[in-house]
Amino acid sequence: MQQHVSLLPYNTFGLPVIAEHFYAFHSVEDLRLALRQTPPPYLILGGGSNMLFTQNPQATVLKNEIGGMEVLRTFKNKVWVKVGGGVVWHDFVLWAVAQGFGGVENLSLIPGTVGAAPVQNIGAYGVELKDVMLRLEALDLTSGMIWNFDNEACHFGYRDSIFKREAKGRYCIVSVTFSLTIAQHRLALSYGDIQRTLAEHGAPNPPGIADISKAVVAIRSSKLPDPAKIGNCGSFFKNPETERAVLDRIRQNHPQAPAYELPDGRVKIPAGWLIEQCGWKGKRVGNTGCYEKQALVLVNYGGATGEEVKNLAHAIIASVQEKFGITLEPEVNIL
Ligand code: EPU
Would you say the pTM of this structure is higher than 0.85? Predict the structure, then answer.
């Protein structure tokens, strides 16, 4: 166990908070040892890419560094791959693509770790973690026992799972097993940006999974700030899902308002658009701001506190509420 550790390198917002008790664990046994040697409560940290610290954590910080990527079973068209919870997500994606395993190429360059990915069911460009996850192993922080959760047991939703709700704070995800394709890949190409970038790159038709991964890396790099340069946590808010009538009302004044139809008849409205319409895009407030290329991303230009970022988020929520009658919900965990 280490004491009085700065979490600056461990959170992508780049906030200089201090953990009084800190333990980086490298295996399940090591985690059990950490639970015996350190005081509760516990905060499990992956890549720190979805957390806004507004104060020093009032918990022992356990940093997941369980590694390993292992092929468990190979079938005719698919493969099951077990990955340690501490593996960096993009390293896993690059490895899968290099092996010719399909399914996660659209999720290239998402910050964070494999163990954190199921918590918010990460997603991008038409694919979500739930589409490729077979099962996961989670260690109960109270008993030290390992529980298996299959895909259904995780109660996945849009940026949501049981680990953000009923099971919040109870487990540490120590491994995730994916079902990936080795032939007849199911390519997700519906997202307009992907088609355009593949064409710009001169990719073959149909493209390979490596072409898609490269296209996604190019799109993300052009829109989203690199956390190593400008502190951020990707999308700060979720895209709100509303009744169709709300969109109809908005379109009376804004006929071009973008929206996606949901299977249940409701609609999802891009929060980035709502925020941009309220005049926040590219606006700087002290050391924080709303990113100039993607209004859904809040940034730390250097020296910001978590409290400042939270205040900016509240100001944005209030103005979207006032102008459109829609309450934005943070996607990021505010601690
Ligand atoms: N838009 C604007 N102004 C902006 C940003 C967006 O008007 O400043 C509108 C545009 O109409 C644009 C639409 O919003 O066409 C969608 O924008 P974008 O494709 O950038 O995606 P997003 O809805 O803002 C979501 C995810 C991202 C994911 C992308 C691509 C959420 C909360 N965010 O963003 O995920 O990469 O789609 O699939 O669902 C993340 O979760 O951290 C994240 C980056």
Answer: yes
